[in-house]
Amino acid sequence: MWRFQRLRCRCKNNRSAAVTNQPLSGRQGKALAACYFYYFAILGLLIPYLGVYFSELGFDSLEIGQLMSILFATRMLAPNLWAYLADRYGQRVRFIQGGSLLAALIFAISLSNNTFTTLAWVLFGYTFFWNGILPQLEVVTLASLGKNSHHYGRIRSFGSAGFIALVLMAGAWFERHGSASLPWIGLGLFALLTLASLWLREPTPAARPSDQHGSFLATLFTPSMVLFLLASTLLQASYGPYYTFFVLYMADVGVGETLAGVMVALGVLAEIGLFALAPRLLARFALADLLLAVALVTALRWGLTWQMQGSEIGQLCVQALHGISFGLGHACAIQYIHRSFASHDQGKAQAIYASIAFGLGGAAGAWLAGVSWHNGSGAAVTWAGAAVAALVAMVILLWFKQQQRLASALATSS
């Protein structure tokens, strides 16, 4: 009898260990995966098709540009305010749940009123809450994973899957029925995001060595962090031509919009694959070396995007590099922020990264691409500029690597 009980205990312990080593096995992991899926499904609906919807409403290109620019403005502002409140009160899950619900309620206004002024305020309102969710979701994910934080990419890949699903399904639907149903699809996705967030539980962050590394501002203004943020901003700015003009560029060189959408989906599939490989790569290679590889591949990608022009197979191969240039780069960046800041500063840290790299970098890249594109005649200059931005980021990351070595040597000597 005693041997039987000991065997039962051993089996129970083995099952517990298995659950610990499988971050998606529990309720929290499934809720996080669902939140990422619906959050990025909304992104997959809005980024490619919101401009088309505005066009069908009768707005001209200037009005569409003004409306779309609100996405960047709220991405620079919202994450920092949300992070301050979440770090102060410590209820990150509540902020995710409340933000999802408020975004859904504000988005619903677009179902009945399509004037420019109303849509501008509605767009500002729901993107203000929606853009504030992601940094807090990142913090909850990393805190929930604990010592298994290197598995972050596996959960984040559900977001990539959601993006692909909506890009492909919504594109096929709108091609047949028009984009008039976009508000209803968007409202459904916001409602599903809200429901998924209700299953989240507030994790208890474990104390980490970085908790004794000093204040938030002291960490933020270390040479390594400044160089990292500068390089990240340049890398995201280099995506300006891709996010703004890639589909149009493919149409101009004879590839066509349909195949261009397949290329975008292929890139996101490669991103999912790199998220899955990221834990092994982070365990085997130094983070600074991986970031250097990301910058080099990104520069190569933009140069080849121009060189390949109308080659369908060539462009398919080039856009598959998205897995390294974005997927691996984002996984490395999230890990570096997570390791560098104290647990009680994680919300502010992730928000600063999102607002500077994606907000400022994305806005600058889109604006500069618009200035240099000239209806396609400036494509060569634009893609070259994107490649140069990535190469400059690589030079900065070499400096970043030296700073990392210096900091490690000082820590060892002390």
Report what the structure shows.
It contains 16 helices and no strands. The radius of gyration is 22 Å and the shape is globular. The protein has helices at residues 2-21, 27-56, 61-89, 92-107, 116-145, 152-177, 182-197, 216-220, 223-237, 240-252, 257-284, 287-308, 312-319, 322-340, 346-373, 379-413. Helices cover 82% and strands 0% of the residues. Helix 4 (92-107) runs antiparallel to helix 7 (182-197), helix 5 packs across helix 15 (346-373) and helix 9 (223-237) packs parallel to helix 15. Mean pLDDT is 82; it is low at 1-21 and 206-213. The protein has two domains: 27-201, Growth Hormone, Chain: A, CATH 1.20.1250.20; 214-414, Growth Hormone, Chain: A, CATH 1.20.1250.20. It is mainly alpha-helical. The protein starts with a helix and ends with a helix.
Features:
Growth Hormone, Chain: A; globular; 0% strand; 16 helices; mainly alpha; 2 domains; 414 residues
Short description:
By secondary structure, the protein is mostly helical. It contains 16 helices and no strands.
Task: List strands and helices in order, with pairings.
Elements: H1 2-21, H2 27-56, H3 61-89, H4 92-107, H5 116-145, H6 152-177, H7 182-197, H8 216-220, H9 223-237, H10 240-252, H11 257-284, H12 287-308, H13 312-319, H14 322-340, H15 346-373, H16 379-413
How many domains, as an integer?
2
Q: From the 3D coordinates, which CATH architecture of the largest domain would you assign?
A: Up-down Bundle
The poorly predicted ranges are 1-21, 206-213
Largest sheet: none
Helix content: over 70%
* CATH fold-level label of the largest domain: Growth Hormone, Chain: A
The SS-based structural class is: mainly alpha
Looking at the structure, what is the overall shape? globular
> What is the CATH top level name of the largest domain?
Mainly Alpha
